[in-house]
Amino acid sequence: MEKNQYKEAVQRLEALDVRSDAFNNYEKAVLHQNLGYAYASVNDYPKAVEAFEECLSFKALPKETTLAVMQNLGQLYVATEQYDKGIAILEAWINQSGGKDISPHLRVLLGDAYLNKADYAKAAVQFKQAIAGVVRPEKSWIQLLAAAYQQWGNDAEAAEALQQGVTLYPDEKSFWQQLAMTYRQMHDDGKAAATLALSCDVGLCESKDIA
Questions:
Q1: Packing angle between helix 25-41 and helix 45-57, nearest 10 degrees?
Q2: Is there a contact between 113 and 122 (Cβ–Cβ < 8 Å)?
Q3: pTM of the entire structure?
Q4: What is the rounded CA–CA span in Å between residue 71 and residue 141?
Q5: How much is the pLDDT for 171?
């Protein structure tokens, strides 16, 4: 594993698993923990999920190690579109970790799971916290937050998110267009026109955009 020879690692760990009946629960948990990492490293996510699930079933690892496995399993659940399981284990991980040291990327992942379950309010909470946790959030995070608010029917909050996008990324045409469209949905044609005019000032509009 340390030499990045993951296929060889999978083969050796699987060979150990064949005779793991003689292992105690801690040894079995460590074996399946490493199997999970090895499978994930060769992009075999279904087997990685099974290995991490098996690892946790023994309830034999120290708390910090268990939390690390839970985090990895939650990420894999979301990656394999098992959103209910992903949400459940990531929320459990957050609770058990005391809500500390939650990376913005993990919050985005959890928000994405909520978004796919049409739970727009909880999705927005996660995206907003992720954005607040960094100096310069990624463009996609702002777009996801705006999308969550719009799907939730909260155009005012969506506009606020897009205003942040325009401020941080003034050269991103899509933010200007989405912000103008959101103002139109709010029946605020004055702000919509002003937004498009400002986008023209920075060279990001065409005549068809104003028509």
A1: 160
A2: no
A3: 0.86
A4: 20
A5: 92
